[in-house]
UniProtKB/TrEMBL annotation:
PROSITE patterns named in the record: AA_TRANSFER_CLASS_1, CHORISMATE_MUT_2
Lineage: superkingdom: Archaea
Protein's name in the database: Aminotransferase
Subunit: Homodimer.
UniProt source species: Nitrosarchaeum koreense MY1
Coiled-coil boundaries: none
Length: 456
């Protein structure tokens, strides 16, 4: 047999052995997953992962093997474990869909689980809906978005954030979510790592997992005022780290980082050549000094925005990304592949919505959030007062409290809240949204108060 055939046989055998080992590893992982579920432990265990990562790096040094390849392979294995262990996680959306189904059966539900303003989009949106047919915005178009809309968004962003944005910096997307997905999946490769600061909106992690990207989680605490430390972030950065996700004002905590800390995080990201994906969809609801990541003028930053919260246009599914033209080009290739382009009529309507004065929305949410905070203080809930966004993230200090169980029990009483578990390892937390008028919020808080008293 020639040398090449011998080597090919050997490589086949090794691959087959690896697949058998992968099957064994996956089976064990499923078993561990079952045990974790039974004892109420979360799926990802960063300490365990760190230990295994260290062992592998030591082994690579001994074997004189490239540790970056080995840790990428490890990231693949860990992600596979996380996938087989993560079924049935309850988030704000599962409670929302359950609540909607109950409403269809005639039950009255107060919605404090979802970040969907109860007020209408600006009046100009109604007019735009009427006129779009005659205006003729009804066809296929550029994947990045209508030039006139991108121009309008560039002007709007430049004025709002005091920066210089042109239409080449803009990609329109169906909601900010799709911009986030395209950024994660086109800028990073499988095995790469990205940093998520928890508690966080679950979609960042889900998009990463779906694209074979390993999430490195930084956990912040209520005691630490939901602020990550530079050391925490520094500790997880290695050669595979490619991106950090920021989301301030934050969902679910409402936190806005002190400017000095945000500056330091940006400096650290720049030093390590990381992309910064900054989801700024709550910027309209910043009640404390807040600085857009756009202001740093960093050429590896991607900012995502949406009309859902600022203009109460959740159902329109329209948002956008702002970045340098080369990045926009990459993101829009995936958008073209998936969607051709975002619906032209919806783009036209959103363009008209930019003309509206939305300061009332800001005031309305602020008033509601204040009412929620005062009531929550009165009820002795444990939380850090939000600096912005539309949520209050509270810890319930009761022995054995489970947010999921609690949220399901509350639904039966007519109140929907989001279990903390959807935002990371926060089983004893719930997220309350301030998207209803004050009277309804009070009704909801009374239902919550009664349930807490019953549980004691
Ligand atoms: O040790 C565990 O808890 C596991 O589930 C195993 C495993 C792994 O695949 O190595 C999976 C996920 C955890 O984040 C850490 C480790």
């Amino acid at each position: 047999m020639s040398d090449i055939n011998q080597l090919r046989n050997r490589i086949d055998e090794i691959t087959i052995e690896m697949i058998k080992m992968l099957k064994m590893r996956t089976d064990i992982s499923k078993e561990i997953g079952e045990i974790k579920k039974n004892i109420g432990k979360g799926v990802t265990d960063e300490t365990r992962e760190d230990n295994l990562r260290s062992k592998i790096i030591t082994l690579c040094n001994e074997l004189k093997f490239d540790e970056s390849i080995a840790t990428k392979f490890l990231n693949f294995l860990l992600n596979e474990s996380i996938k087989v262990q993560s079924d049935n996680k309850q988030t704000h959306l599962s409670i929302f869909h359950k609540a909607k189904a109950m409403e269809r059966d005639g039950k009255k539900i107060i919605h404090m689980e979802v970040g969907e303003p109860d007020f209408s989009p600006p009046q100009i949106v109604k007019k735009a809906l009427e006129e779009v047919f005659d205006k003729g915005f009804l066809k296929y178009g550029n994947a990045k978005g209508l030039p006139s809309f991108r121009e309008a968004l560039a002007k709007y962003s430049s004025e709002k954030f005091g920066v210089d944005v042109s239409q080449d910096n803009i990609m329109v997307s169906p909601g900010a979510r799709f911009s986030i997905y395209t950024a994660i999946s086109t800028l990073l490769n499988p095995g790469d790592e990205l940093i998520v600061i928890e508690p966080s909106w679950p979609a960042y992690k889900e998009c990463a997992l779906n694209s074979g990207i390993k999430v490195r989680t930084i956990t912040t605490t209520l005691e630490g005022k939901w602020e990550p430390t530079i050391e925490q972030i520094q500790k997880v950065i290695n050669n595979n780290t490619k991106m950090i996700i920021l989301n301030y004002p934050n969902n679910p905590t409402g936190k806005i980082l002190p400017e000095k800390l945000q500056d330091e995080i940006v400096r650290l990201a720049i030093k390590n050549n990381l992309y910064i994906l900054s989801d700024e969809i709550y910027s309209q609801y910043a009640y404390k000094k807040w600085k857009s990541i756009l202001c740093y003028n960093y050429d590896k930053s991607i900012i995502t925005q949406s009309f859902s919260k600022s203009h109460a246009m959740t159902g329109f599914r329209i948002g956008y990304a702002i970045s340098r033209p080369e990045i926009i080009e990459k993101l829009s290739k995936l958008e073209a592949l998936c969607l051709t382009n975002v619906s032209e009529p919806i783009q036209y309507i959103a363009m008209r919505a930019l003309e509206a004065d939305i300061s009332d929305n800001t005031n309305t949410v602020q008033t509601r959030l204040n009412v929620l905070v005062e009531k929550a203080k009165e009820m002795n809930l444990d939380f850090v007062a939000p600096d912005g966004a539309m949520y209050l993230f509270a810890r319930i200090n009761q022995e054995g409290f489970s947010g999921v169980q609690f949220a399901n029990n509350l639904l039966e009483k007519g109140l929907a809240v989001a279990p903390g578990e959807g935002f990371g390892e926060f089983k004893n937390f719930i997220r309350l949204s301030a998207c209803q008028d004050e009277k309804i919020l009070m009704e909801g808080m009374n239902i919550l108060g009664n349930m807490l008293r019953d549980k004691q």
